[in-house]
Amino acid sequence: MLGLRDLDVSEINHILDTAEGFEQISTRSVKKAPPLRGKVVANLFFEDSTRTRNSFTLAADRLSADVIEFTQKMSSVSKGETFLDTARNLEAMGVDIVVVRHVASGASRLLSRSISACVVNAGGGFCEHPTQGLLDIYTIRKIKKSLEGLKIGIVGDIAHSRVARSDIWGMSKLGAEVILVGPPTLMPPKVDELPVSVSYSLDDVLEELDVINMLRIQFERMGGNPFPSVREYSHFYGLTGERMQKAKDDILVMHPGPINRGVEIESEVADGKNSVILEQVKNGLAVRMAVLFLVNQAAAEKA
Ligand code: NCD
After folding, report:
1. Same domain, 19 and 149
2. Residue 226: pLDDT band by 50, 70, 90 thresholds?
3. Predicted confidence (pLDDT) at residue 78 exceeds the cutoff of 90
4. Domain containing 76: what range?
């Protein structure tokens, strides 16, 4: 599972339908199921993470897998071991599924060609973050029933966002109209080759949107300063309570986290009635259970 660009509509829907089944498990008093019993999942995180990492750990745990936690800071990478050697050593311990997050965009693809265990991309560089895309889509589908014909705005730092890439591929495949909103300096290169339209003004498009996904400015992933000041950015692109007056009553407000309150989104909106931000996190667990379950199933069929 490297990216949503690689999947077709029926594969995406199959993952979402499988996740629906797994959502039920979280409502039981015993929140475990046996499908990955005896399997080993390694969480290989070369970059910081809160939601994604804990969600994958819990998902693997709920499916009864054994989980190995790897973080760069506490490993032999600090002694000079390469990315591939690290992964091969973990594989030698009998790992079946490797969940990988890396600063480099091609890391999960490289890994999938180099080891025989299944590889799940948990966010790579600026490229893709497929399980985040899937949980965003799952959350929208659950509330709006279908993505067909919805207008979805993705606002902010598109250039450095792997979440935006996965959302763009997945949402457009399912029939949504995706509008990227932000300053020209935060638009990705070759944006005209993506299945999207572009607006440089949030105020121009806000009233049309059925869903709005606010992105964090990923300062740690960029070189220079993409705008004169954070204050100016917030003025033009921040989702404030005042701006929300213009939006549809039933607009869904999304954010992949971590939120920078007062920069891309005001607290009253992040915690307000249209916000589904914590629903996204909740749904992420079921979606990741589905992904782990299905990659394991696909590997078993191949063997
Ligand atoms: C995002 C990421 O790491 O790509 N967060 C996440 O996984 N939910 C977005 C971000 O870092 O802003």
Report:
1. no
2. confident
3. no
4. 4-128+281-302
Question: Does ligand 1 have an atom closer than 6 angstroms to the CB of 260?
Answer: no
Distance 85 CA to ligand 1 centre (A): 26
- Residue 47 CA: nearest ligand 1 atom is 3
How many angstroms separate the Cα of 135 from the Cα of each of 44, 79, 118, 130, 285?
A: 20, 36, 20, 9, 9
Mutate to test the pocket of ligand 1, among 54, 121, 218 (most ligand atoms within 8 A of CB): 218
Same-domain status, 20 and 116: yes
Rounded Cα gap, residues 58 and 50, in angstroms = 12
How far is Cα 187 from Cα 27, in angstroms, rounded to an integer?
40
- CB of 51 shorter than 6 A to ligand 1: yes
What is the distance in A from the centroid of ligand 1 to the CA of 255? 9
Q: What pLDDT, in 10s, does the model give residues 87-132?
A: 999 899 999 999 999 999 999 999 999 999 999 999 999 999 999 9
For the entire predicted model, the pTM comes to 0.96
Closest C-alpha among 186, 189, 190 to residue 199: 186
The CATH number of the domain holding residue 50 is 3.40.50.1370
| 25 shares its domain with 83 | yes
Structural domains counted in the chain: 2
Same domain? 295 vs 224: no
**Ligand 1 closest atom vs CA 256:** 8
Spell out where 103-251 has E strands: 118-124, 151-155, 177-181, 197-199, 211-214
Identify which of 199, 205, 201, 198 has the alpha carbon closest to the alpha carbon of residue 248: 205
